[in-house]
Structure formats: C-alpha cells, structure tokens
Amino acid sequence: MSTPVLAHTGLITSRWLRAQFRSPALIAFTLVQPAIWLLLFGQLFKGIVELPGFGTTSYIAFLTPGIVMMTALMSSGWNGTTFITDMERGVMDRMLASPVRRGALMAGQLISNATSTAIQALLVFGIGLAAGARYDGGVVGFLVTVAASVLIGTAFGSLSNAVALLTRQQEALIGISQFVSLPLTFMSSIMIDPKLAPHWVEVAARFNPVDWATVAAREALSADPDWASAGRHGLYLLAFTLVVAYWSTRAFRTYQRSV
C-alpha cells in the first residue's frame, strides 16, 4: 500500500473514530446489546446441553464465541448508514471529488468499525467469563476469536457499504441487512451444533461465513484445538472478506455513474 493511501486511510479512520466518540448513546448501545444477547440466550437455552451428542456441559462457554460473531455481524450490517448520511449531506460527493483514494475511503471506515468490533468482543468475553465460561485455549484462543470477529465485521461492513452505495436508501439497506443477517445467524453454530439441527441447516452452515468464524474461534479456544480445522475456516473467512472488500470499493464507480 503506497504512502498516500496510508495517509488517506489514517485521516478517514480518524474522522470516523471521532464521530463514534461524539455519540455516547451509540457507544453505550453497541456495548450493552451483546451483553443482553449473551445473558438472555445463555439462560433461555441453557438446558440444550442435555441433548445427546451436544458435546459440552457448559452452554455459556459454547455460546460466548458465537455471540461475539453475532455481535460483529449485526453491528456491521448498519455500517452503510454512515455512507448514506454522507450522501444526503453532500459529503460523499466532495470526498470523491478530492484526491482521497477510493480504497482509503472504504478502509478508513472499516478500520473504525473493526476497532468497535474488537472492543465488543472483549466485552462479551468478559461477561462470559463472569457468567462461568472457561476456556483452555488461553491468549492464543482469545486472539483468534477477536481476529475472526474483526474479519466478519469487515466482510459484512463492506457488504453494507456496497449496498448503501448502490441503493442510496436507508430503508433498502436496513431491509437487506435484516434479510441477510438473521438467516446467517440461525443457519450457523452460534447457538447450537448444526449436527443437532435439520440436515439442510447443517449443509448450509458449511457455506456460511459466520459459521466459519464461529468454528475457528471454538477450535482455538478448546483444550485440544484442531488447528487444521481452525486454519481452514480462517482462510475461508479471510478470502471471503478480501473479495467482498474489493467488490465494495468498486461500488464507488457505480455510485459516481448514477449521480
């Protein structure tokens, strides 16, 4: 990455980070929401560990990495709303007319989002540990989980930005975000092992980026990690993130042709 791109990315990242810190209500919501999910689902489905073949006696330990990924997915789905706000205020057109690189416009916003995602992941882990979750994977397992959540956030944040650039409508973005995020959440191992779900759900989970992230995290956190599985799912996730990020940057061209 060239020096101008790095400089531009730093400026855009700083802009979005400042905007986040100026919205304390938004910060509070993004931090409290995953805590509610973890405690609510942890109590609601805690008896599921009694199912034959579930594989663990601690549902909160099983659920915590999943909620980390769910939080990253749900939060990043709203990423594009900031782009739409810039479009409505004319900021996006001024940015595109400036020397700022298109990749920096996208990367800066995604890095800001990744920062929030990492903080949310640490918060969820803290709550999970306080609720009794224990992991033998140590620091490496935690780092792999945070990295996987950042990749999920970046991938679906990129997708959200692309949808924003193509539709330029808040309503369309919200509808598409919900249409994508909810099925991906429930067709994964976030709340239950897919082997205990209907066969078609188990098959769908194999092609679900959210499940790739969850599987990689759980393997890394386990007492005897299957690093081959964790690495394979991590590479799937990285490839998906790079493809979506590239495509979302190309969406700037479509936006410019349509204005």
Structural overview:
- With 259 residues, this protein is mainly alpha-helical.
- The chain is 78% helix and 0% strand.
- The protein has eleven helices and no strands.
- The mean pLDDT is 87.
What's a concise summary of this model?
It contains eleven helices and no strands. It is mainly α.
What are the main properties of this structure?
11 helices; 259 residues; mainly alpha
Largest sheet: none
Strand content: under 5%
* Uncertain ranges: none
In angstroms, what is the radius of gyration? Answer: 19 Å
Shape: elongated
Keywords: Antibiotic resistance, Cell membrane, Membrane, Transmembrane, Transmembrane helix, Transport
Transmembrane segments: 25-45, 57-84, 105-133, 139-160, 172-192, 234-252
InterPro entries: ABC2_TM (IPR013525), ABC2_TM_bact-type (IPR047817), ABC_2_transport (IPR000412), Nod_factor_ABC_transporter (IPR051784)
Subcellular location: Cell membrane; Membrane
Helix and strand layout, with pairings?
Blueprint: H1 3-21, H2 24-44, H3 59-76, H4 80-89, H5 91-97, H6 102-130, H7 138-167, H8 170-186, H9 199-205, H10 209-221, H11 227-258
Helix pairs in contact: 1-6, 2-3, 2-6, 3-6, 3-7, 3-10, 4-7, 6-7, 6-11, 7-8, 7-10, 7-11, 10-11
